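Morning. Coffee machine broken again, so started the prediction first thing and wrote up yesterday's gels while waiting. Chain of 146 residues, entered below exactly as on the submission form.
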Amino acid sequence: MSKSNFQDWNEVVFHKKPVKNSKAGSGSGSGPGLKKASVVGNTQQKQESAHLRKLDEAEVGRHKTVSSTLRQAISRGRAEKGMKQKELANLLNVKSTVIQDYESGKAIPDGRLLARMERVLGVKLTGKKKEQGKKLPTKKEPKESK
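Came back before lunch.
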């Protein structure tokens, strides 16, 4: 058996379909009709870009980031414990850039991480804004009864 039995050596040619322009009226697909279609297309693109620009300005789809009171509470709590950002990150098993993002206000809040920060720093970080930054009460050991 020869290998050429499994190959198809016939020539295949692809042609572009002719564009029919309903607005031109002539039906030839060339001439002033195409020019009008491109002008209409440019107008639509300009309208879409203007619409997208308005959305960017309004920032409707913006993610919620860390509030200023939470940022300050984290940095104060870390400073009171005498920790650097890297030390806090190591205790929380996260990268130091995460702590930097929280303290600069760029981070998207994560409830689980905030709860772990609360325990390590001893500062209230979750809940109502007016409660944020307050020190957590220390746990009292139960008295032994004799």
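Residues 68-131 form a domain with the 434 Repressor (Amino-terminal Domain) fold (CATH 1.10.260.40). Going to sketch it on the whiteboard this afternoon.
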